[in-house]
Design goal:
This protein is an all-alpha fold. It has 2 domains: 125 residues, no CATH class; 46 residues. Helices cover 59% and strands 0% of the residues. The protein contains 10 helices and no strands. Helix 3 crosses helix 4. The protein is elongated and about 85 Å long. 16% of the residues are buried.
Length: 208
């Protein structure tokens, strides 16, 4: 069942809200106001409703839509893993207030992972479109230009052994020679590509 965010008075509620209110984060304060949008909340609610036709009334109470949306945004802003998100939510009054968990228990990281997966490509796209629309309505952007991050990212490369480096050199030289021959008019040179044979030899060396 889709949960609801309910503030219940408790013995420690006053102390919690007093301490949490004293901690401010300029970035999260702006994001907090953006996430108050009813359309964004509707996307999160529809996402949770995908689990079962009776999600609105049947089953154990799960994560509230506004809490789920805020947790997802916080995770991506900070670049955390699900375990890190769970740990930080448990430890920080600021993040508890932002995600509206307050003094309530934090869901396990595995539950957060499964809930986030419900958004999928379609749900994420709807959130992005609504945020862009908010920015256009506030005259922050015109929506005509796209800026992308060109930061280099880690990728999978093979370990630079001597044999693999030699094979790479042969492959690059063969490719360069083919381009040279193609660029020469009436060239009678014939290039034999040994890249495949060198690949098999590298595998033989690796298995030896």
């Amino acid at each position: 069942m889709i949960g609801k965010t309910v503030r219940q008075s408790s013995l420690f509620a006053f102390a919690f809200f007093k301490e949490a209110a004293a901690i401010r984060d300029p970035t999260l304060d702006v994001v907090d106001r953006l996430l108050e949008d009813p359309e964004l909340l509707a996307v999160s609610t529809q996402t949770l409703a995908k689990r079962s036709p009776g999600s609105y009334k049947v089953g154990r109470e799960g994560i509230a839509p506004d809490r789920l949306l805020r947790c997802m945004v916080l995770k991506h802003i900070k670049g955390w893993s699900y375990r890190e998100l769970h740990r930080e939510l448990r430890a920080s009054l600021l993040y508890r207030r932002f995600t509206r968990f307050y003094e309530d228990p934090i869901p396990d990281f595995s539950n957060l992972c499964r809930a986030f997966a419900l958004f999928g490509k379609e749900g994420t796209q709807q959130i992005h479109q609504r945020i862009v629309q908010q920015a256009k309505e506030a005259n922050m952007i015109a929506g005509k230009k796209l800026r992308t991050d060109t930061t280099a990212v880690e990728t999978n490369i093979h370990y630079p052994t001597d044999s693999s480096l030699l094979a790479d050199s042969l492959r690059v030289m063969s490719r360069s020679l083919h381009r040279i021959v193609q660029g020469c008019q009436d060239s009678e040179f014939r290039i034999v590509n040994h890249a495949r044979a060198s690949k098999h030899r590298v595998l033989e060396i690796a298995r030896a």
